[in-house]
Write the structure tokens for this entry.
Amino acid sequence: MKKIELKYITKSTPILTEKKDIVKSKLSANENKNFWELRGVNLSISPGEAIGLLGNNGAGKTILIDILAGKEKQTTGFITMDAHTSVATTRYGLDKNITGLENIKHAVSSANLDEFKANHVINAIINFSDLGEWLYCPVKTFSTGLYARLSIAIALFVKPELILIDNIFGSLDLAFFKKVSDKIQNLKDVGVSFVISDINVVNIERFCERTLWLEFGEVQDFGSTREIMVQYEYSFGWLQSLTASEKTDYLAKKQSERQSFDVSTIYEEFKVEQFKNGFTRKDEPKMRNAFYNERGADPVKLLADKKNQEKAAIKKKDKRGKGLKVAGFFIVLLLLCGGIYNVAFAKENVWDYIQDRFAQNDSTASSKNKSQQESKSGADSATASDSQSSSKKAKTKKEESTKAAKASSSSAKAASLASSSSAASAKAASESSAKASSESVQKLKDNTQTINVQSGDTLEGLASKYSTTVDNIMKINNFTSNNDLKAGDVIRVPK
């Protein structure tokens, strides 16, 4: 349950005047005086809180209870409340022409509870109220105490959210009052709110965290119950200290103020609040209509709710945009990683190519050097002297031996490269074959059905039965030998 707020609540009641009073006051027969029962009440109630209403008889406590209960409509002001309201009073609420049990069932039915919960609540009220056989008697035969019992029992159990209690504790016997006290505390602990009006200030102190002090329809103070009690007792002592004539004059003055009260003073307070919350002079016709005629939802509350909805929509939009940005960031990151991988793969291929080119260049250079050296040896042999011929031949023979060794090394290197190329080709062929085999097995598995292996089944028998081969059945089920087939197993065979 959300917080309950009352703002600028006033209530006027016409005074019926006699003809002699009209003549004496020079009023027309169609004119009536107004008596203001409430003059600008502001009140807030939090979940799980009990608010006390304190004041002398006629201060306005009862009419405020009736406005909260929906029995009366305020003259001006706004009530912000989304709670189910129950009222416990001896003034109204029960149909006196039907039995107590019928009243209970009618109250439960009005709360629109499901059948299971409704029956549970009815039984709870019957057990709590302890009315016995009186439950089956018409309420008009009840005493004030029995009426009070039934009224507060229904209020405490039928969808309790905001419970209004109006001068009912004094009608309860001590034992039942103790039971009611315990129940009220339990309900407060789970978030149920109370507004309690009682002529006995002890009961206000017992249940209420905060108290509203009313006198002559006007709020004197609103705050901590203990502090309000001190002020109330001080005011009572001051009034009692007046002489009879002083007291008469004081009361006459206060009653006159209730008749001459100008409600426009409350409207001015309302306007100031509106202007502080963003309303302008252009909004004043709407403000006046809301204050005097509509008397529904508080315009400030409506504006705040609208702003909160707009903020929530913006927040949701920003959250969605943030989510898209994060998704975009990850997509870009993935693309970037893919690009880096491709570049790295390309660089690796280029490096392999460069290495191959260097190997080819080395082989070509070795062959060219060999040819040049052989040509030079031939020229030297033709022009050399006979004395140097044998020496040159020995030298040439040595060089030829060296060149032959180099050629052998080059051939070995070439053979090594060829061997590597052959190994790579063999590996590629092996991978291709394995891939083809895997795809073939997968194709077999895709077009299969499951069977239960019976006692005496063999791979050859199953292959013949399902028009396939033993090898296919072994591939599909990853068998390594005929011994893998066992009775009771579930295997797959071609359809």
In short: The chain has 15 helices and eleven strands.
